[in-house]
Amino acid sequence: MVIRQSEPARRLFLLTEGGARFFYVSSEGHKLLGPRILPGEIFGGAAMLAKPCSYLASTETVNDSRALAWDRTTIRALVARYPRLLDNALSFALDYLSWAIVAHIGLACHSARLRLAQTLVDLTRSIGHKSFGGVELHVTNEELANAANVTVFTASRLLSEWHRHGAVVKSRGKVQVRHPDRLFSRGA
């Protein structure tokens, strides 16, 4: 755990190795997973703001990771001296807003099957590793369900169906996408 939601935003981080992800814990105690953070991306951007505030979401690493960190005073001084830093941070913020809009559109307009299929294809492009016969993802059913805005039961059912039809190979904590085109057809 690197950042906890609702704590004062005291540091900005730049992930240099490994991986991390945002998550939010609802008032009912549900952990809602957000987008992954890849090397070269920042988190804790609220520390850059002129008015002190709190982090909106938590951030945790998902494997061995390294990050650079700047305290609020230092990063604010750097932003004043190098405005391009703020431009870069706004670019990341825009990416996260785009992610939220796409998720909202998916909920309003697309079936659970389509949302999960698109999530798998998007993840193969961002965090997938080529392997013999396809692209391997180190993700759990819960992570996929959260990313696609479906229940864990629905994610498990669809993954099992796709596994039976050869589109994916599912094992504990891993999914190998073999035929991404088959994810989008009803009979696959």
Folded structure, characterized:
Helices cover 38% and strands 25% of the residues. A hairpin with a 2-residue loop joins strand 9 and strand 10. The longest helix has 26 residues, at 84-109. The strands form three sheets. The chain has a four-stranded antiparallel β-sheet with strand order 7-8-10-9. It has a three-stranded antiparallel β-sheet with strand order 4-1-6. With 188 residues, it is of the alpha+beta class. Helix 3 (112-126) crosses helix 4 (141-148) and helix 4 crosses helix 5 (152-164).
Helicity range of the residues?
25-40%
Mean pLDDT: 93
CATH topology of the largest domain: Jelly Rolls
CATH architecture of the largest domain: Sandwich
Q: What is the overall silhouette? A: elongated
Rg calc: 18 Å
Gap between N and C termini: 38 Å
Mind describing the biggest β-sheet? 4 strands, antiparallel
Strand content: 25-35%
Instruction: Give the helix tally.
Output: 5
- Structural class call reads alpha+beta
Low-confidence stretches: none
Order of SSEs: EEEEEEHHHEEHHEE
The side-by-side strand order for the widest beta sheet comes to 7-8-10-9
Question: How many domains, as an integer?
Answer: 2
CATH level-1 class of the largest domain:
Mainly Beta
Total strands: the figure is 10
CATH superfamily of the largest domain: Jelly Rolls
Q: What's the helix and strand layout?
A:
Elements: E1 11-17, E2 20-25, E3 31-37, E4 42-43, E5 58-61, E6 66-71, H1 72-81, H2 84-109, H3 112-126, E7 129-131, E8 134-137, H4 141-148, H5 152-164, E9 168-171, E10 174-177
Antiparallel strand pairs: 1-4, 1-6, 2-3, 2-5, 7-8, 8-10, 9-10
